[in-house]
Amino acid sequence: MTLFEQRNNPAMAGKIRAQGNTARFSQLRNCQDLAVSLRIDAYRLQLLVLQPKYNCYSVRKPKGGFRLIEDPQGRLKSVQSRLNDFLQSAYLPLRPECAYGFTRAKSEDDDRTVVGNALQHLGCRYLLNVDLKDFFH
Read out DSSP for 110-133? Predict the structure, then answer.
């Protein structure tokens, strides 16, 4: 496959981008390097860290009570999204096959979904499900 074909193939383009992100991420040495990679001024990045802004609201739980949702606002959300891209790229080559939670698929036929995870446990004699109360808050 030529370089042109690779770049125009969405799966290959994603793989190339991930490899570039992995290389860039491994070379970060300080806050300034991180800020440049996240396409934000270092001072603004520090402000986002020290004074994060969230839209907070509650959602009713199916079994009673409410869940607090803290949705990052504007710039914070975009920076967190870019940081997630870098972290996912760095983790992708190291990720064990058994990891399903909060990961991206390695390929188009990789079923890293809630259903895919559940299918891994069919026929198991025991299954432990843990919910940590107020984990994110």
Answer: ---SHHHHHHTTTT-S-------T
Across the 137 residues of the chain, what is the mean pLDDT of every consecutive 10-residue run?
Answer: 49 55 80 91 94 94 89 94 85 78 73 82 89 73
Instruction: Evaluate whether 54 touches 73 at the Cβ level (below 8 Å).
Output: yes
Residue corresponding to tokens 């396409």:
39
pLDDT for 75? 93
Cα(27)–Cα(39) distance, integer angstroms: 16
**75 membership: H or E segment, kind and range:** helix 74-91
CA dihedral 126, 127, 132, 133 (to 10 degrees): -90
Report the DSSP beta bridge partners of residue 70. Answer: 56
Burial of 20-49, coded b for 16+ CB within 10 Å and e otherwise, reads ebbeebeebeeeeebbebbebeeeebeebe
CB atoms within 10 A of CB 19: 13
- Residue 86 CB neighbours (<10 A): 19
